Amino acid sequence: MRRLFPVILTALFFSTGPSGEIYEAFPDNVSPDDKYLFYSHGYIVEGDNPRPVETRFGWGVYDFPAIKTALASEDYHLIAYHRPENTDPFDYAQELNLQVRQLVDAGVPAAHITIMGFSRGAFITGVASGKLADLNINTVILAGCGGLGSAKYSDIRVYGHVLSVYEKSDRAGSCKKLRENSTQLTSFTEIEINTGLDHGAFYQPLTDWLGPTRQWINTKMNIQ
């Protein structure tokens, strides 16, 4: 059994810090002194069920609430929407782009904003990154390059600081092609994990992906 990220400890940080709220809608009040992480979930969660079960490939439960709890931190606000069924990824990416710009317009430094997504959420995140070319934000792509960087979407570019994390046994694979296409990146880091769990490695808050991802986010957003 894979070891899960220490959710209880993270939840304590979330509940006791001066910031660290989890938002399911864009916050009414934005402070320029705060930091913000957007997390976009995978396709299977679209709809009403926050814990759907994938049975075709045996990936099991996608535990969206547990992932949100594990991602929460006293050092930044987490914005994680539950998208409705059949959300258009390009429309959603445009909305994400506008919300990031709303933060920047409120005085939040671009370096203090990270957009992050898994699978369909990673595709949305990548498209949004392309719309934010003029801002040096942070972008995290989790198992998203089955679409990003493919021949069908070879026109998509990402910008700023980019982290790709993918599972060795997952056909989504490396973001090497996306990196080659994105010639104006500020930085690019890629991490391969090896859980043997295919796409399902990101269905739970496993330390394999969550640990290095949190470390990268903390570094880029200058969190001590």
UniProtKB/TrEMBL annotation:
InterPro entries: AB_hydrolase_fold (IPR029058), DUF1023 (IPR010427). It comes from Lacimicrobium alkaliphilum. The lineage of its organism: Bacteria, Pseudomonadati, Pseudomonadota, Gammaproteobacteria, Alteromonadales. This is DUF1023 domain-containing protein. Residues 93-163 form the DUF1023 domain. Pfam families: Abhydrolase_8 (PF06259). SUPFAM superfamilies: alpha/beta-Hydrolases (SSF53474).
